[in-house]
Amino acid sequence: MKELVEVIAKSLVDHPDQVVVTEEDTEGVIKLVLKVADDDMGKVIGKQGRIAKAIRTVVKAASTKIDKKVDVDIAQ
């Protein structure tokens, strides 16, 4: 899952070298925290959060294979 979020985020931003995804696994829930450059924050979130919602939807669909809940957070 971590690699999936990384690939999606790197394709959206101007500074792909500053994309960092950390993964925390707690009690069957995988939490992915996405950090990007300040300039790229709007590109990852999108208007009214549409791109962020799309990223979460893709990850949720992919997580059905591993039978775990996956949360994606976008941090500053």
Report on the structure:
- By secondary structure, the chain is α+β, with helices and mostly antiparallel strands.
- It has a single domain (2-75), classed as K homology (KH) domain (GMP Synthetase, Chain A, domain 3), CATH 3.30.300.20.
- It is 39% helix and 28% strand.
- It has three helices and three strands.
- The protein has a three-stranded mixed beta sheet with strand order 1-2-3, covered by helices on one side.
- A hairpin with a 2-residue loop joins strand 1 (20-26) and strand 2.
- It is globular.
- The two termini are 20 Å apart.
Topology:
Elements: H1 2-12, E1 20-26, E2 29-35, H2 41-45, H3 50-63, E3 69-75
Parallel strand pairs: 2-3
Antiparallel strand pairs: 1-2
What labels would you give this structure?
3 strands; three-stranded mixed sheet; 3 helices; GMP Synthetase, Chain A, domain 3; alpha+beta; 76 residues
How much helical structure, as a percent, in the residues?
A: 25-40%
Extended strand count: 3
Low-confidence stretches: none
Largest sheet composition: 3 strands, mixed
CATH architecture classification = 2-Layer Sandwich
What is the level 1 CATH name? Alpha Beta
Under CATH, the homologous superfamily reads: K homology (KH) domain
The ordered string of helix (H) and strand (E) elements is HEEHHE
**Per the principal axes of the C-alpha atoms, what is the gross shape?**
globular
Give the strand order, joined by hyphens, for the main sheet. Answer: 1-2-3
Question: Which structural category do the helix and sheet elements fall into?
Answer: alpha+beta
